[in-house]
Design brief:
About 40% of the residues lie in helices and about 20% in strands. It is α/β, with parallel strands linked by helices and about 300 residues long. Strands 3-2-1-4-5-7-6 form a seven-stranded mixed sheet, with helices on both faces. Helix 6 packs across helix 8 and helix 8 runs antiparallel to helix 9. The protein starts with about 35 loop residues before the first helix and ends in an 18-residue tail after the last strand.
Length: about 300
């Protein structure tokens, strides 16, 4: 059965489902302020085009090695692009499924799959409650979801439940303590980063993926990493939201916010700017029943 939260507490988060309307004015010039879902989808598309994200995803699919006839699941599927990749790999005899808690996002994923003539399918669900029987899938993929989870161990147990014995899992996530921003006053940047970390349920998720899988009984097969470097189109909305949240929490002043944003704009104009975060990927498999998880494989960086 799907795992339940053992003790009462605040509602479990899954991932950011929308951007508040008052936060979209700095997202993209062509996105209406009153259409936060369009803004979110636009940001996801911009991020998906980043070379670092593309390299990480390519490495991940090669490492997971989904093949014809297999059943593959993508958790927190967003716009569904990686489920389309699964669908191409499993062919007509397999099944490629994406899960997301956001009905509007699922509608986007379904429309894109239909437009591509893909057999990919999408269902509503969360990492804590996957709407599938035990032992349903040969492979499970989950990217940039764990950073938004209050109970990552429960989600990992749920992945183990739906994976068949011998099935593979690939977890990919950021470690926001590796974030680097330039230019900007060092003290103000530190305060900005501290605020962001405090509002992220699981900001160190990248470094914890291996331990979570090992604790859940998985054997670790490979580990990769990629420092994702953001381009101007992705820097601006992220930096704007970070500074606005910090201002709202009285962590920085309005003048400091203006100085940071204008300094970043000057840096973008002159080519002297940088914003990055390191993502980590861990590949594991569920041992056959009756066998304990064996040792940990050698870590191998993404190149």
């Amino acid at each position: 059965m799907p795992s339940e939260q053992s003790t009462p507490g605040p509602p479990l988060s899954f991932h950011v489902d929308a951007i508040p309307p008052d936060r979209t004015d700095n997202v993209r010039d062509d996105v209406p302020i009153d259409d936060p879902m369009t803004a979110l989808i636009g940001i996801l598309d911009l991020q998906a085009a980043l070379p670092g994200i593309r390299r990480m995803r390519r490495w991940g699919h090669d490492a997971l090695a989904v093949g014809p006839g297999e059943y593959a699941l993508d958790i927190g599927t967003g716009t569904g692009s990686e489920v389309l990749e699964f669908a191409d790999r499993v062919g007509p005899d397999g099944d490629a499924v994406g899960v997301d808690p956001n009905p509007a996002m699922l509608a986007t994923a379904r429309a894109r799959a239909e437009g591509a003539g893909s057999r990919a399918r999408f269902v509503e669900g969360t990492a804590y409650h996957l709407p599938f029987p035990d032992d349903s899938f040969d492979a499970v993929r989950c990217e940039r979801v764990y950073q938004h989870l209050d109970d990552p161990a429960a989600a990992t147990a749920e992945i183990a439940r739906v994976l068949r014995p011998g099935g593979r899992v690939l977890l990919v996530d950021s470690d926001w303590h590796t974030a680097i921003a330039h230019p900007g006053d060092a003290d103000v940047i530190t305060r900005l980063t501290t605020t962001m970390l405090a509002t992220t349920p699981n900001p160190t998720s990248g470094r914890r993926l291996r331990g979570l899988l090992t604790a859940a009984g998985f054997s670790i097969d490979d580990i990769g990493s990629e420092a994702v470097i953001w381009d101007p189109d992705t820097v601006r909305p992220l930096f704007a939201r970070m500074t606005e949240h910090a201002l709202a929490d009285d962590v920085i002043t309005e003048q400091q916010r203006l100085d940071l944003v204008s300094g970043m704009e000057v840096g973008i104009t002159t080519g002297d700017y940088h914003l990055s975060v390191t993502m980590f990927a861990v590949l594991g498999h569920r041992p056959p029943r009756g066998r304990a998880a064996a040792g940990i494989g050698a870590a191998m960086p993404v190149t």
